[in-house]
Write a structure and sequence with these properties.
There is one protein chain. The protein has 214 residues and is mainly alpha-helical. Helices cover 86% and strands 0% of the residues. Helix 4 runs antiparallel to helix 6. The termini are far apart.
Amino acid sequence: MKLFNFFKTWKTKQKVKSLRKKLKLEIDQNISGSQESIDQISKVLTDFKKHNYSKHDSFLNLCIFSDIVLIDLTLLLEKFQFAERLQEKKLYARVISIVLLDYLDNIGVLIGSNCLAELKRNNMLEFIDEFKSMHKNFSSFKTTNERLLREIRNNTIAHKNKDALILNQHINKLNENEIYEFGLQFKIHIKDFIDLSTKVINYISEYMREGRKI
């Protein structure tokens, strides 16, 4: 019986290792894809600036910004998922809160003002409704979760409160699994934007290749 239990436990551990290895490979591929996107778009934006071409500055800036946040979030979610210590999970949850909140604080301007205005100036009206829908999704997420995220950032990671007892209380009551779920939901929103941005990039590439003007 002891030998049977040993092999059963060993088999379970091997299965977990195999799943972790598979998941890590998938994450590595996702991160590599995002970094490749950052490098390519950064080169395009840099070249445009050298030639004083600024028609797509806001859009390309938003693409780079979103890919960077996607990498950050992917790494944090991976670390949370594999973490075995409670304190470790709480730390990653606290950092996830900062990443989400900072992106939400910036996305209102990056999409809502800069990018939509740029699309209108460039007569790329076929993308307006999709960008508005994307902006609405981010705004809704912020409205629903901002109070909690800001409380976590201010009281558990930014260390604005110098009272260690209160700091400890906030960390202890933090629901790390809830924040993890927020991160998973938010990653879907960012991925949706990246899928939309790919359509816009293809559009820009096509009209430039054909020598057309917006």
